[in-house]
Amino acid sequence: LCPCLIYGAYIFLPFDAPLLPTVSARLVYTLRCATFATFPVVLGMIVSGISRLCSSALEPFGELHREVEIHRTYVSQSIHLFILYFFNMAVLATYLPQELLKLIPLLTGLFAISRLIFWMSYAIGRSFRAFGFSMTFLPLLAMLLWNLYGMFVLEPENLLA
Question: Where do the TM regions start and end (predicted)?
Answer without folding.
Answer: 29-53, 74-97, 103-124, 131-152
